[in-house]
Structures are given as C-alpha cells and as structure tokens.
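Human: I'm a chemist; would you kindly supply sequence and structure tokens for a protein?

Assistant:
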Amino acid sequence: MLIILRGTSNSFKSTFARRYFSFDSIISIDMIRKKLFGTCNYFKEEELIDDICSKIINSRLKHGLIAIVDSTNLYYRFIKKFINIAIKNNSDYVIFSFTRDIDDTIAGSIDRQRSTGGPGINKVDIISQSESYLKQKKIIIDKCSQYFYEFVVRDEESLSDIYKEYEQIVEIRKNNEAISRPNKESYA
C-alpha cells in the first residue's frame, strides 16, 4: 500500500509517520533533500527528488511492502506519478492531508526552532505555503477524491485518533478492493 502524507509545516505528518510506521517504510522528502543538499529547504532539484522517491516507492511496492511518502505540500503532478506506480504494482493507495490552524502552525514553527535550534519558518512563508497547499488540495480532491482523506490536527495528542481512522479506512478499503482502485490503468 502507498500512503501519501501531505500537509503544511508543523501539521504533525512526520510525527504521525514516525510514531505509527516503521522507519524503513517512510520516504521523507525533507530527509532526502537534507542528505543530498545539507538542508531540507533546497528546492532547485525537485525532479531529482521525485526520481529518487519514485524508485524507492516502486521498489517497496514491487516487493509487497508499505510505502509512506512524507512531504510538505506535495503537488498533484508528483502524486499522480506516485499513484501510477502504485497502480502498476497492483497496490492500493490513499492520500492523507493534514491540516492545522495557521496560528498553531506559526506557533509550532517557533517552538520547533527553539527546541531544535534549527531553522523555523517565518510567518510570511507559512502563509504562502498554506495558500499553495490549499490550491493544490483543490486540484487533488478534484482528481482523486475517493482516495483523499483530510485530517484536522489540533495537537500531537490527536494523532492517535487519526491512526484509528487510518485503520478503519484500510479495513474498509480492503473489503471494497474492486471499488478502491482501478485495474492496472494509468491514473489521469
């Protein structure tokens, strides 16, 4: 199964992935950027990042392993490519979108900066990222609504409720496999 986690910064998607899934199943786009370029905030090589992610996803799904893509504001063109990989490997897929109140997102960025000493994201960038996130979300919902699930994250404690919903979604999708994915067709 392919699980795509998308959302704004500080929406707890990485925390969710680390808490509920094995480390080897998580494909963190930020960590790939950091390993290649020394920072999570290098965006000039997105095609290379996409290529690496696609190869990891394909390999994991081909071997029947779960693949969790963890990315901030993943664009539809990348989601489409990842979904096509899942279809090619006869794997189910879902998109989980994590949404958080803008003020909580800004406060979370400040807290992260204080606790890690790492770079925080300034208010202007968070607002811009949120606007882009909403624009992409509309496109994604329009193209793949039956695979899209939205979670409003209040705080870190709410992740256990989201995981329970995840388990229910997976169970329902397993019981309705004929409905949950097309038969080896490329995704529009």
User: Anything to note?
Assistant: The mean pLDDT is 79. Helices lie at 13-20, 29-37, 46-62, 76-88, 102-116, 123-144, 159-175, 177-180. The longest strand covers residues 93-99. The CA atoms of residues 114 and 130 lie 22 Å apart.
